[in-house]
Amino acid sequence: MSSPSHHHIPLSVWGMLLLLSVIWGGSYLFVGIAVKDLSPLVIVMARVVLAAAALLPLHLLLIGPLPRDREAWTAIIGLSILNNVIPFTLIVTGQTMIASGLASVINATSPLFGVAIIAMVGLEPLILRKTIGILIGILGVAILKGGTMFEQGSQTLGILLCLGAAASYGFGSLWARMKLKNTPPLSMATGQLLCSSLIMTVLAFSFDNPSQLIDASKESWIALLALALLSTSFAYILFFRVVAQSGPANVLLVTMLIPV
Q1: Disulfide: which of 14, 33, 131, 165 matches 90 by Cβ 3.0-4.6 Å?
Q2: In this predicted model, what pLDDT tens digit does every residue of 113-125 receive, in sequence order?
Q3: How far apart are CA 216 and CA 212, in angstroms?
Q4: HSE value, Cβ hemisphere, 13 Å, CA-based, for 93
Q5: Measuring CA to CA, which residue among 216, 158, 208 is closest to residue 38?
Q6: How far apart are CA 228 and CA 73, in angstroms?
Q7: How confident is the model at residue 4 (pLDDT cuts 50, 70, 90)?
């Protein structure tokens, strides 16, 4: 996958970013419904397993077998951890402590983490306007929290968990910039979700009780299906198309559109 320009975003890419923001914005609503019946690990497991089950036959039909080279799977496994396993689990857990809208606003700090992390490893300089943007983002989170940032309470923990998810997306942007090359977007999305499904299934069965899915309400199942098929399968197809056309740093801009 070639390295697109990070300075100009085509109009078509802005259209995909807007659509992606609406789809991912809905994920906070769907999670907010599902957490009434289901625990975070089970929600994330169901999300990635259902999403992978939807994408795999589509991949086999349109592209054929998944990539077999080690370089592609190194990129895929890393992205599955940084883009799915860690942030999905932290955000869903955080949503048990803070409102869905606040969680989406906290997640909008992802580009700030991405800029800071990429600068720390020396891939791009941390120029003045980027520094100001990071400081404004930190100030915004502090204003949203109110009071003392590190005071005890579930809201503080929920905010910190969502910040951890945003940081993971930032590291995911760095990983994508370093590792994404010639793997098709659909292959990245399908492979990432397959790896995430394996990891989350092991975690859910080791530390939780997936049988709670049997007793989940109809509303929770509808939310899970929407979360998996719309906000994960379809969303990641769009996500990797944007990465292919405009670069992994620019795709994080979608998190700033989600709260709207």
Answers
A1: 165
A2: 777 777 777 666 6
A3: 6
A4: 16
A5: 216
A6: 22
A7: very low
